[in-house]
Amino acid sequence: MSTRASQRVASLGTTVFGEMSRMAGELGAVNLGQGFPEFSGPDVVKTAAKQAIDDNKNQYAPPQGIPRLRQAIADTYQQAYGLEADVEQEITVTTGATEALLASMLGLLDPGDEVVVFEPFYDAYPAQISFAGGKTVPVRLNTPDWSFDPDELAGAFSERTRAILITNPHNPTGKVFTEEELDLIADLCQTHDVVAITDEVYDRLVYDGAVHIPIATRPGMRNRTITINSTGKTFSMTGWKIGYAIAAPELTAAIRGAHQFITFATSTPFQEGMATGMEAALESDYYDQLAARYTSLRNIMKQGLEGAGLPILPAEGSFFLLADAAGRGFEDDVSFCMHLLREIGVAAIPPSAFYADPSTAPILARFCFAKEPATLEEANRRLGALRASR
């Protein structure tokens, strides 16, 4: 009996997030690598989930998600963006946004289909596209402002293009796509009959006057967009893995066709908890408070990085900052991040892991500021050694 892994899996290796977190734990480093909040979510959400367990809501939920949560999702998008969604035919609750992405790929792609993806990209994207038999076609976001070349984007579309995958706000750059950029993408989608899959898990985390615009709200895009989001980021409970996809009925049918054979259904009591959280947020300033909290944390992180002599690249969204380490004598971003980890005691992510060809990546480091102020202050104290060593 052969115990080897399939070529599909063996080629992937270990995610950079898991590896850096493991080493950070072993070395006692401040972990600003993996993107998860250090603080807990609202008590009302936890209380509702515990009550659901006590009320014996512990069996399979409907595969598409409990009606109450789907209604809360619809109400949230209508209130925030004026986007109407049918709770029965257009909203699917998934086990995190990552499953929504995988179900979208498996539901849409045939072998050889191409997906245009802006790079740097979340490292799960090419793996999921590959699992579905597709091919990733990268389009570069260029430093220092993370703009893209419209001609390069147009040239990435072909007769095999099935979808374009957009992360907005973008991970790892923090870019928030402008209305003009989204309209350019929308025109290409309509010209080439392409679906837009948009990962919007950081939609509530925008700064410096930036405005998040769902591409589904642009002319001609409502019925050719899959909007994916996650309650884990907005309610600081990533371990609950409650995500969702909003799409026209035909696209939703494709997503659900894959979803039923991936996880079938998502945790019932956690769905109840998140439904309560989203309902409460509709009647309060929760999202404004969330953005204000992250703005404060972002300012602490910026102060520390700039104080350490690390220039920060523009970032209008997400809970990450990218710092420029060029000119410090390191061969690449991996060697710089390993230096940070072993000598400075701070874990960051080398963004070359998010490029199709890591050797072409600029020398940057990604820092997550979704941490308690005391954690960021300690990281800043340690990062101060960088300036002293220059």
Tell me what the structure shows.
- The chain is an alpha/beta fold and 390 residues long.
- The chain folds into two domains: 7-41 and 286-389, Aspartate Aminotransferase, domain 1 (Alpha-Beta Complex); 45-282, Type I PLP-dependent aspartate aminotransferase-like (Major domain) (Aspartate Aminotransferase, domain 2).
- It has helices at residues 7-10, 16-27, 43-54, 67-81, 96-108, 124-131, 150-156, 179-192, 231-234, 249-259, 268-282, 286-307, 333-344, 373-389, and strands spanning 30-31, 91-94, 114-119, 135-140, 161-167, 195-199, 225-230, 243-246, 320-324, 346-347, 364-368.
- It has a seven-stranded mixed beta sheet, sandwiched between helices. It has a two-stranded parallel sheet with strand order 1-10. Strands 9-11 form a two-stranded antiparallel sheet.
- Helix 4 (67-81) runs parallel beside helix 11 (268-282) and helix 12 packs parallel to helix 14.
- It starts with 6 loop residues before the first helix and ends with a helix.
* Strand tally: 11
Uncertain runs: none
Oligomer: single chain
Q: Helical stretch count?
A: 14
Strand order of the largest sheet: 2-8-7-6-5-3-4
CATH superfamily of the largest domain: Type I PLP-dependent aspartate aminotransferase-like (Major domain)
Tally of discrete structural domains: 2
Order of H and E elements: HHEHHEHEHEHEHEEHEHHHEHEEH
CATH class value of the largest domain = Alpha Beta
Chain-averaged pLDDT: 96
Concise structural overview:
The protein has 390 residues and is of the alpha/beta class.
